[in-house]
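Fill in residues.
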């Protein structure tokens, strides 16, 4: 079967074509205008989706060498995400489904991030454990079958991507700062500065304390990590401190985020005795995490799986592969289905 999938949950408008579980095209339009505001502005995001969606779908069809008449099903991201953004993809998919008389498939975005690992030919075997690290979520997911997942741990406050972006903002870097921390970290010494490892129960994560620790560290221009009401530095001193130590700060911050993630994840993988481990979500594009994750697998004799870069951050390819498994199970949605900002369909 040939599936057209649409992703519009946040600030990328994306369309993909999947034929019998193989992704033929994965076209992504990223909305650059949010950078100037330091974050995604929901109203602007939905308007940009409206402008982008028709050309983005056209290009996805062209790249795959397919036309509307070839489609057997239309899939879209139903939840979670920004409601105005989700609505654009949902209404587009429903209209096309109605016009072409083809079934509609509703996909959960977080489930799709995990299943990005089923896109390549080399696939993990079930059950596998996945560390999903994105802009809004940080989860350890036990995946027993393509559509059977259990969240066994998650963040109790900020997501890993949020931690990257907030730390980057404190360093004066533009949004989204995660990829920039990755870039500068490559030149830096990860052991130069020590940031605390937060305490969270079980397989859960916490990142808000790290962000605060880094704020105080920068306010003290590296002189101390202890909070003082009256910071003994001037704006100029702090700026100079960041400028002359940027690579080492980025490398140290990145190392701490990675160790927080992998310490919890490896404990879960040992306890559950899984053989195959995966990462997913925007932060799985981080080069330090990809390397540390691979080393963790080698050390413990686990098979590691990491999606290609284009399938880490938001993309319709992952929606399409999830829809493929839903189609095999005949899990179709009715035309009155509504998108939801949170929760499962
Ligand atoms: P969610 O999937 O939870 O709804 P989202 O869709 O906004 O959130 P993604 O698109 O999956 O999130 O990921 C975006 C996040 O990934 C951002 O926080 C961004 O900074 C981070 N990110 C992307 N590339 C890198 C990188 N190389 N290093 C670190 N973080 C990165
Ligand atoms: Mg995005
Ligand atoms: Fe996402």
């Amino acid at each position: 079967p040939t599936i057209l999938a649409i992703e519009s949950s946040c600030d990328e408008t994306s369309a993909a074509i999947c034929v019998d579980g193989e992704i033929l095209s994965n076209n992504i339009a990223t909305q650059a205008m949010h950078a100037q505001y330091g974050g995604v502005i929901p109203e602007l995001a939905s308007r940009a989706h409206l402008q982008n969606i028709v050309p983005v779908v056209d290009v996805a069809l062209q790249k795959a060498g397919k036309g509307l008449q070839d489609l057997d099903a239309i899939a879209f991201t139903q939840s979670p995400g920004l409601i105005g953004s989700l609505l654009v993809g949902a209404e587009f998919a429903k209209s096309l489904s109605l016009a072409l008389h083809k079934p509609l498939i509703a996909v959960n975005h977080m489930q799709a991030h995990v299943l990005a690992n089923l896109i390549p030919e080399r696939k993990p075997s079930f059950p596998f454990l996945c560390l999903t690290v994105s802009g809004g979520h940080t989860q350890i997911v036990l995946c027993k079958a393509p559509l059977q997942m259990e969240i066994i741990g998650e963040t109790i406050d900020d997501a890993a991507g949020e931690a990257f972006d907030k730390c980057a903002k404190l360093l004066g870097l533009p949004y989204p700062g995660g990829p920039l921390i990755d870039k500068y970290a490559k030149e830096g010494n990860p052991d130069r500065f020590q940031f605390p490892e937060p305490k969270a129960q079980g397989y859960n994560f916490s990142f808000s304390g790290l962000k605060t620790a880094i704020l105080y560290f920068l306010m003290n221009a590296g002189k101390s990590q202890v909070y003082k009401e009256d910071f003994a530095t001037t704006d100029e001193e702090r700026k100079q401190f960041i400028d002359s130590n940027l690579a080492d700060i980025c490398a140290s911050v990145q190392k701490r985020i990675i160790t927080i993630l992998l310490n919890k994840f490896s404990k879960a993988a040992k306890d559950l005795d899984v053989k195959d481990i995966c990462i997913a979500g925007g932060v799985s594009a981080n080069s330090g995490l990809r390397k540390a994750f691979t080393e963790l697998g080698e050390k413990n004799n686990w098979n590691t799986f990491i999606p290609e870069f284009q399938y880490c951050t938001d993309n319709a390819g992952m929606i399409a592969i999830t829809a493929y498994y839903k189609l095999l199970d005949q899990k179709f949605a009715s035309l009155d289905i509504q998108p939801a900002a949170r929760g499962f369909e």
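Residues 5 and 75 are 4 Å apart (CA to CA).
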